[in-house]
Amino acid sequence: MYGKVMSACLHGVEGKLVEVEVDLSNGLPQMNIVGLPDSAVKESIERVRAAIKNCGYTFPLQRITINLAPADVRKEGSAFDLAIAMGILYTSGQLQLELPEQVLILGELALDGTVREIPGVLSMIVSASEQGIRRILIPRANYQEASLIPDVEIGCLSHLNDLHSGIAPLFNTTNYSPSKSNTSATRISVSNEDYADVHGQMQAKRALMICAAGMHNILLLGPPGTGKTMLVKRLPSILPVMSDQEALEVTKIYSASGKFADRSSLIRERPFRMPHHSVSSAGLVGGGGIPKPGEISLAHRGVLFLDELPEFSRNVLEVLRQPLEERYVTIGRARATYRFPSNFIFAASMNPCGFVTKSTVNTI
Fold first, then answer.
1. Count of structural domains, the chain
2. Which of residues 140, 175, 210 is at a domain's end?
3. What b/e string do you get for 328-349 counting C-beta neighbours within 10 Å, with b at 16 or more?
4. Is 214 inside a domain boundary?
5. How far apart are CA 107 and CA 8, in angstroms?
6. Terminal Cα distance for the chain, rounded
7. pLDDT at residue number 185
8. Would you call 278 helix, strand, or coil by DSSP?
9. In this predicted model, what pLDDT tens digit does every residue of 254-275 receive, in sequence order?
10. Does 173 have pLDDT greater than 60?
11. Do 7 and 120 sit in the same domain of this protein?
């Protein structure tokens, strides 16, 4: 017996659709997952087996093969749990699905069948919507984030037992969730760092206004205590409001990074990132075994501020060359290449001293 459902995974900060194919055949009972799964995906075998049994379904005592296609793309994370479980139930005849290839299924399973939230839902739904999939089945905890995308039908469940009555009732969200957020509404900044609070400093204030008007980079040079850091922290308050497209780009990055706190609306305030001078090059531009966005991507459409610039290592400053010029950073790995956006204003401050070299100035 063969069945197929749709799911997705994160590839950098973008979503990528994945076909979850299930085959049940005669043989010794076992379950195998193929298609370049990572450790979290391989461990889903035990989570899915326990969840299906603990929710009153029958786990097939057959040879089960799960294929995650395309097979040449590395699959990471636990977002496939729900899709694998529903694929097994659908293929074994215990669950009825109409047009399963037109429903995107995302979610992590607990051993008792509870469906847990996952990061990066926004990016995966945007990718599915662009490819014509309009019905999305997700954990209930991710509903507010998913509802930010217009023209898609969101279905939610909090437990695998919710499938006993079919999936059609799950798309009736009016009983437990707020209406969709207005993605065009502008959030008003409540930050205390307001440009209007600065008195005097006319020359520096004019430089910041020019910087904000043209999205130029800026370096403030002066003795300690003259207000360099204070001025730069107020730079985002005079930047223009982000457009809907810009807000969606920023929100996708924070969603994929697991740093999306307020899920009820898109991020409308310009990001301001101020990493410590001990930050590594991977922490600044992104990286790791499974590459994640660095500080320059978290500052996308906003401001990246390096306070006390000479304290940062030469390697860290050197890796800023290409992102500042190209407005994106590419991280290559053996199995995949990841591209992260990095269109930001680069602001820095420093004290006049003998540690400023020609090489450091040229880097800026």
1. 2
2. 175
3. ebebeeeebebbbbbbbbbbbb
4. yes
5. 10
6. 61
7. 38
8. coil
9. 999 888 877 778 999 999 999 9
10. no
11. yes
Q: Clarify whether residues 170 and 252 are in a common domain.
A: no
- Tell me if 95 is assigned to some domain: yes
CATH number at residue 248: 3.40.50.300
For residues 220 and 314, state if they share a domain. yes
Structural domain contains residue 96: yes
How many angstroms separate the CA atoms of 339 and 256, rounded? 13
Query: What would the mean pLDDT of 202-214 be, rounded to a whole number?
Result: 94
What's the one-letter identity of residue 244? D
pLDDT at 302 over 50: yes
224, 229, 231, 234 alpha-carbon torsion, rounded to 10° = -160
* Same domain, yes or no: 247 and 101: no
Q: What is the pLDDT of residue 192?
A: 63
Asked whether residue 218 falls in the same domain as residue 333, the answer is yes
Cβ neighbors of 135 (< 8 A, separation 6 or more) are 102, 103, 104, 152, 153, 155, 171
Q: Are 332 and 316 in contact (CB under 8 A)?
A: no
100-104, 107-111, 177-181, 279-283: which has the minimum mean pLDDT?
A: 177-181
Rounded to whole angstroms, how far apart are CA atoms 220 and 225?
Answer: 12
Question: Rounded distance, CA 337 to CA 39, Å?
Answer: 20
Mean pLDDT score across all residues of the chain: 88
Residue 47 is part of which domain span?
2-175
Q: What is the CA radius of gyration of the chain?
A: 24
Per-residue pLDDT tens over the stretch 28-52 = 999 999 999 998 899 999 999 999 9
Exposed / middle / buried, residue 223 (Cβ in 10 Å: 0-12, 13-18, 19+): exposed
Among candidates 312, 235, 328, 330, which has minimal Cα distance to 273? 235
Judgement on whether residues 222 and 321 belong to the same structural domain of the protein: yes
Domain boundary among 114, 142, 175: 175
DSSP 126: H
Shared domain check, 232 and 317: yes
Question: Residue 66: beta bridge partners?
Answer: 22, 33
pLDDT in tens, 53-91: 999 999 999 999 999 999 988 898 899 999 999 999 999
